[in-house]
Each structure stands twice: as C-alpha cells, then as structure tokens.
TrEMBL record:
Binding site for substrate: T8, T9, N10, P11, G12, K13, S75, F155, G156, Y157, D158, K177, H182, R183
GO biological process, alphabetically ordered: nucleotide metabolic process; purine nucleoside triphosphate catabolic process
NCBIfam families: RdgB/HAM1 family non-canonical purine NTP pyrophosphatase
Known EC number: 3.6.1.66
Quaternary context: Homodimer.
Cofactor: Mg(2+)
Domain of life the protein comes from: Bacteria
Textual note on the cofactor: Binds 1 Mg(2+) ion per subunit.
Enzyme class: hydrolase
Catalyzed chemical reaction(s): ITP + H2O = IMP + diphosphate + H(+); dITP + H2O = dIMP + diphosphate + H(+); XTP + H2O = XMP + diphosphate + H(+)
Active site: D74
Name under which the protein is recorded: dITP/XTP pyrophosphatase
Organism from which the protein derives: candidate division CPR3 bacterium GW2011_GWF2_35_18
Amino acid sequence: MLKILFATTNPGKIRELQEVFSGMSVEILSIKDFNNHLPHKFEAIESGKTFIDNAEIKSKTYGEKLNILTVADDSGLEVKALDGRPGVFSKRYGNSDEERNRRLLNELQEVPKSNRTARFVCALSLYDPNNRKCHTVEGIMQGKISYSIQGAQGFGYDPIFINETGKTNAEISLQKKNQISHRGKAFRKLKIYIQKNYKI
Ligand code: IMP
C-alpha cells in the first residue's frame, strides 16, 4: 500500500483525493494523522509569488519533516480585467467569502460582460523525500465573473464564477464541478503520474 500525505486540514479536499484513488492500493493521510510527530503550531509559510511556488513550499516542508511522499495544493482565482488579482491572495482578499465576493463584484461594476474573463487555477505538488524532488501539475477552469451572487452550493468564489455550463459553480452539483474544475483536472493529472512512477 502506497501511503501519501495530503498536507491539508480541509476534509473536503482529502475526500476528493481519496475518491480519485478509490479502489487502488493507495492510502491518503492528512496532517491530523501526524499531529503527534509535528512541533506545536508547525506550518509552511506560503510566501511564494505563484500557486506553483506555494504548493511546492508546502509539499517540501511537510514531506521533509515527516519523511513521507507528500502532496500539497494551492489554488485561487485570477481575473483578467484586474491583472490577475486576487491570484495568490484569493484567501486574503477579505474577511469572509461574502466580503471577498462583494469586493470583486464592486471592482468589476463598470466592466462589460466581454471583459469579465477569469480562471481558477490549482497547482498540485508531489514531493518525494527519497530523491528530494517535486513533481508539480496545474489544472485550470475558465469562466467569467457574474454581476451578482448566484447559487448556494460550493464555497469561496463559486457563487460569482460562471463556468462552461453557463451557470455559476454554486448552481451545479459537486460531481459536475469535480468533472470540470481546476482541482479535479490537477488531481487526475497527478494520478496518472503516480500510477506510472510508483507502480500501483
Ligand atoms: P486554498 O487553495 O484552499 O488555499 O484556496 C485559496 C482560495 O481560493 C480559497 O479560499 C477560495 O477563496 C479560492 N478558491 C480556490 N478554489 C476554489 C473553488 O473551487 N471555488 C471557489 N473558490 C475557490
């Protein structure tokens, strides 16, 4: 059984990765499984300028400390009319999802539909302590920013992100979102790499 640590405390993300590897000889562990082996308040400092930098900082920090094959992700929203903002600051763009969404809608108030292009990006990094290398993949979901908050599912910027179905991410099922999302695409790319390189 191949053991992989997913360096996150988000149970939703753990479930998604477990689902990707279901029926295979892979066990996905979370940071909570290693609480006794980590110093108090141990964390990776996400100081990178890109999603890839931050995902690699996280996978290396935990993989080296715990000497285990480690996956870490970093994701966020890039809005073209705002020169790519909020980008790596997606989490810190306001104090709540509601505040972050309202801020973006305000900033885009005068922007016409044709110029409201945006994309979600997910960088997913796998660190192997045996060769001390990272293998990192990216998944992208293209869309547009809506004019109002629509839908109640999902999280984060989902209610203002119109995807390829013409609905916001908050108006579609989780299964559908996983099929077309940045994270779903990145998870599937990493699965192919792991299947090839770790003979599972
Ligand atoms: P993290 O990758 O969990 O650190 O997420 C960064 C931030 O990007 C989150 O707090 C959300 O605001 C945003 N984000 C990332 N993925 C999604 C998504 O699938 N839907 C909505 N917001 C997302």
